[in-house]
User: Fold this.
Amino acid sequence: MKIIKGILSTTIVFLLSFCMITQLCVSAVTKNYPDSELKDKLYIEICTAEESNAPGDNYTNESVSVLQEAIKKAEEVYNDQNATETDIQNAIDSLKSAVEGLTKPDIDTKELWKLIEESKYYTARGNKYTQTSYNEFSAAYSDACAAYYYGQTQEQVDRAKDALASAMANLEIVEDVDREIIDAPDVSESKNVLFLEIQSAEKSCSPGDNYTIESVSVLQEAIKKAEEIYNDQNATETDIQNAIDSLKSAVEGLTKPDIDTKELWKLIEESKYYTARGNKYTQTSYNEFSAAYSDACAAYYYGQTQEQVDRAKDALASALENLEIKYAGIMGDVNGDNAISIIDATLIQEYLSNFVDFDDLQKISADFNDDGLVNVADATCIQKKLVNMD
Assistant:
C-alpha cells in the first residue's frame, strides 16, 4: 500500500509539475506573439508608405532614403515568422515617422515654371527652326522640366532656368519656313492658351478617376478637335476660342457613375488576407478566387453600373466561400498519426529551432491558428486545445 501511495504521490507531483511547466511555456510563447490583425496593419502601412512617395512628389533624397530603409525593414519584419508584437509595432512606428518626415527641397521654382510655360509654344514647332538650335532647345526644355519636378537644390533649378532661357534666345528660324507662314493669322497668344487647355484637359481624366464612359468620350472628342485646331496654321481666333470653350465644357461635364461601392470595398479588404496564401488552397479554387479578386478591384475602380459592382461583389464572395484547402487531414496533426498530441506541438518547436524540416503538407497542418504562418503561437494553441480536451 505504501508503495502504491508513493507511486500515486510521485505521479501527482509529476502531473502538477507538467501543468505548471506547460502553463509557463504557454505564457512565455504567447507573451509577444503578434496576431494576424497586427500583421495586416503592418501590411497596410507598408502599402501606404510606398504610395506616399509618388513620381513627381520630389522629396529630398535624404528623407526618401529614410523612407526606403523603413519600408525595407518593415518588409523583413512582415516576412519574419518569428517577429514579435514589439518588432511589428516598431516597424509600423518607423514607417509612420518616415512618411511624416518626408520633406520638400528648400527651393523656389516659380520663375522656372513660368519660363517652362512660355517655352511650351516652341515645343511643337521644330520644323520652324534649325536642327541644331532646336535640338539644344529640346534638351534644355527636358532638363528644365526635370529640375522643376525633381530638383534638389536652388543651384540646379537656376542653372536649368538659365540654360532654357539661353536656348530659347538662340533658336534660329529657317528662312523658307518663315516666308511660308508670314501671312498666317497672328494668334500665337491664343494658341498658347489652347495648348495649356489641352494639357489641362488631358490631366483631368487620370487612371482611377472613373468617370462615366459617356462624359469621357465627350472629353476625348473635344481634345481631338482642339489638337486639330492647334495644328491648323489657318485657324482663326474664333476657331481657337471655340475649341477652348469646348474643352472647358467637357472637363466640367465629367461625371462619376451613380454607384455604391462601400460593400464591395469592405469585401476586397477582407479578401486581402487570402491573396498571399495560394499554396494553402487547391490550384483551381485559388485561381477562381484570384480572378474574382482582380475583377472586384476593377469594378471598384472602374465600374460603370451598380449591376457590375454587385456582380463582382457576389462573385468574390462566392470564390472566397469555395476556397478549398489542400490539406485534407487534421489541422495540427504534424506527425500524421491522425491525432493531435503534445508531440505535434513539440515538432513545431523543433521546426522553429531548425532541428527538423517540414514538407509542404506539414507546414499547412502546423499552421493551427490559420494566420498564414508557422510559429510558436501554433504550438501554444495546440497545447491549449489539449488542456481543454482533457
